[in-house]
Design brief:
Layout (H helix, E strand, L loop, with lengths): L27 H12 L1 H14 L4 H23 L8 H9 L1 H36 L6 H20 L2 H29 L2 H8 L6 H12 L18 H28 L9 H8 L7 H32 L18 H20 L4 H33 L5 H26 L4 H24 L1 H5 L14 H7 L1
Helix pairs in contact: 1-7, 1-10, 1-12, 2-3, 2-9, 2-10, 2-12, 3-9, 3-10, 3-14, 3-15, 4-5, 4-14, 5-12, 5-13, 5-14, 5-16, 6-13, 7-10, 7-12, 9-15, 12-13, 14-15, 14-16
């Protein structure tokens, strides 16, 4: 494995460039909770199938294809996580494999994905809390919503800056409760649904390839985020074993929940339906009591997603700062909590502030959510395509060339790029054009910043690809004495 300094053992330093984080603080369950929370399976189950149906594609088929693509990408992610523990997540793989500048562009795509996903989660959290209040007969006034949103933002920031252990446990408990609620409701709907209509929905007619690609791209939003556990590799015990297992386990668990919920909604979803899951429950007198439970599950799931997305984005910023590409303040970690406090507060302000500002100007909530989903899709698909394309080169550089990776990696990269291109082309001409345009502007601006930094400080780009290499405290002291 590559180390930070590429020096003999007797020349090892006391710390790596990623020092200051709470190294080895997290166990397997905590790391898995990070990926599961970023995926937000319960919130995705409540929101994404409806958005897929709005694209005009067969919902079940789109979700299955998206899950299959996510499994292929997860195989590549696990190959990276088994070799390089890094806080920069997938962009470190691109930097090590194909060069610093592609790595920098991948970092921008990751930030776009994490921040858009977090903003979408915040928007949906507010919506589901309002629905929950309405379902139990509580009227939420505008000032109360504003105060609640600010309190929610402050609570999230405080949880995150208290340390990764606390935020991971909060996400784990929150997502566990949400998953149990959604699974129970999904099973009830499947047991009380019409088998013939479900069969017709599963075997629905496939439209043109453009709409199918667009539907698959939106469906991928339900499965993205499983790689975010890699951003906590430095803070994980036995990261080369724990993180790959967390990536695989979180995707399988969340994928099963989302697919189960998709089947439960499939018979009532259509291109014009906007609230099929809840409408099906409301129309059944015996199931109306379950509606508040679904609202609560979705709100909790999206809350955990906001925490996890902010956590991952802050680690990416920390890694960039430690490499000298971003301002050094973003690499600051608190001495007590060992959390990247500056990055956390910046990401928290973005994730909560942007939706709050947009809603204050009276923007349509559904259009905002759709545009944020479009931004998340563009960011994650671009990052995954970069990972797939750079993975074979990274393995070769590490001295572990793989013929399978040379076949699977480029094929997966081309597929994801084609899906992204089809989705962007359809989105930019539709009602959610703001998300597609904003994504293009973001990536263009990020690339321009990278070109400027590389021109003015080429030494900063030369150091990209930092990961947790071996330090003196990790090596048997007798060996150090014998070689000194």
């Amino acid at each position: 494995m590559l180390t930070d300094n590429q020096v003999p053992l007797h020349g090892l330093g006391p710390r790596t460039r990623l020092g200051g984080l709470d190294r080895g603080a997290l166990g397997a369950a905590d790391v898995a909770a990070q990926s599961v929370s970023t995926m937000a399976p319960c919130g995705a189950a409540a929101a994404i199938p409806v958005l897929v149906a709005a694209q005009g594609g067969p919902v079940v088929l789109c979700m299955v294809i998206a899950f299959a693509l996510a499994l292929i990408v997860s195989w590549l992610v696990r190959g990276f996580a088994r070799r390089v523990p890094a806080a920069g997540s997938l962009y470190t793989c691109a930097a090590v494999g194909v060069g610093p500048f592609p790595g920098f562009v991948t970092a921008g795509a990751l930030l776009l994905g994490y921040l858009s996903s977090g903003m979408f989660a915040v928007t949906e959290t507010s919506a589901f809390w309002l629905r929950l209040a309405s379902s139990v007969g509580i009227t939420a006034h505008g000032w109360l919503v504003a105060v609640g949103a600010l309190g929610f933002a402050a609570l999230s920031g405080v949880v995150l800056v208290r340390g990764i252990r606390i935020s991971a446990r909060v996400s784990l408990v929150t997502e566990t409760v949400a998953v149990l609620l959604v699974v129970a409701v999904s099973v009830w709907l499947l047991c009380h649904g019409a088998e013939r209509r479900l069969h017709d929905a599963v075997l629905a007619h496939t439209p043109d390839l453009g709409r199918l690609a667009s539907g698959v791209a939106v469906a991928l939003t339900a499965f993205v985020g499983f790689e975010s556990a890699t951003a906590l590799a430095v803070e994980t015990r036995n990261p080369l074993r724990t993180v790959p297992a967390a990536v695989r386990g979180s995707l399988l668990l969340s994928g099963a929940v989302v697919l189960l919920a998709t089947l439960a909604q499939a018979e009532t979803l259509s291109g014009t339906t906007t609230d099929s899951w809840f409408q099906a429950l409301t129309d059944d007198p015996g199931a109306r009591a379950l509606v508040p439970a679904v609202y609560l599950a979705a709100a909790l799931s999206f809350f955990a997603c906001a925490l996890a997305s902010t956590t991952a984005a802050a680690r990416v910023l920390l890694s960039l700062a430690r490499e000298g590409v971003m301002p050094a303040a973003l690499g600051h970690t608190d001495l007590r909590s060992k959390a990247p406090t500056v990055g956390i507060w910046l990401c928290t302000a973005t994730v909560f502030g942007v939706p709050f500002a947009v809603s204050a100007f009276g923007a349509d909530a559904e259009a905002v959510c759709g545009s944020l989903v479009a931004g998340a899709v563009c960011g994650f698909l671009l990052a995954y395509a970069a990972l797939a394309g750079s993975m074979p080169a990274m393995l070769r550089r590490l001295g572990e060339p793989s013929r399978v990776a040379w076949v699977v990696g480029p094929a997966c990269a081309l597929t994801l790029t084609a899906v992204l291109a089809g989705f962007w082309g359809l989105t930019v001409t539709g009602p959610l054009w703001a998300g597609a345009v904003t994504s293009a502007v973001w990536m263009g601006a990020w690339t321009a910043i990278g070109l400027r930094v590389r021109a003015r400080r080429p030494d900063a780009f030369a150091s990209m690809g930092a990961h947790a290499g071996t330090v003196r405290s990790s090596v048997w002291r007798g060996y150090l004495r014998s070689t000194s």
